[in-house]
Amino acid sequence: DVQLVESGGGSVQAGGSLTLSCTASGFTYSSYCMGWFRRAPGKEREGVAAIDSDGKTNYADSVKGRFLISQDKGKNTVSLQMNNLKPEDTAMYYCAASRTVVVWDLSESEYALWGQGTQVTVFS
Q1: How far is it, in rounded angstroms, from Cα 98 to Cα 19?
Q2: Distance from the CA of 81 to the CA of which of 5, 37, 55, 110 falls in 20 to 30 A?
Q3: What three-state secondary structure class fits 27?
Q4: Cβ distance 31 to 49 under 8 Å?
Q5: Which residues, including other chains, have CB under 8 Å from residue 78's CB and lie 6 or more apart?
Q6: CA angle 103, 31, 7 (to 5 degrees)
Q7: 124 has a pLDDT exceeding 90
Q8: pLDDT band at 24 (very low <50, low <70, confident <90, very high)
Q9: CA-CA distance, 48 to 61, in Å (whole number)?
Q10: What is the residue-wise DSSP string for 37-87?
């Protein structure tokens, strides 16, 4: 079965850090572009960061300089290190995979495979 399983969410004080991980199974990970998305309460889901099979990365302006996306192809894992977290980063975070998207495109419509999500709560 194709699966994306996120972990690492939790509650943290503003200014703190969290690292999310997503483990993929059931498909050829190395052929996919991997992305992280989030949905805050009352808002639409938005793209946060992406990394392609060559290691090129892209970030939403709101997280540039604070978040770092990386991958371990040997473990079929993509991670999102989140630093200097702000209350506005509070959201459900989702891992996603696409064979067709280019890393510069953070549109959720281009991603076909999705995880169940992990909650991140940042309190002030």
Answers
A1: 22
A2: 110
A3: coil
A4: no
A5: 21, 22, 24, 34, 36, 51, 69, 70, 71, 72, 95
A6: 75
A7: yes
A8: very high
A9: 8
A10: EEE-TTS--EEEEEE-TT--EEE-TTTTTTEEEEEEGGGTEEEEEE-S--G
DSSP single-letter state for residue 103: T
- Residue 118 corresponds to which tokens in the numbers above? 């992990």
Q: What would the two tokens of residue 47 be?
A: 């793209």
Alpha-carbon distance of 70 to 88, in angstroms, equals 22
Nearest to 93 by CA among 3, 22, 24: 22
Residue 113 and residue 3 in contact, taking contact as beta carbons nearer than 8 Å = no
Mean pLDDT for 57-68 is 98
Tokens of 63: 């997280």
pLDDT exceeding 90 applies to what percent of the chain? 91
Block residue for tokens 């770092």: 68
- The count of residues in the chain is 124
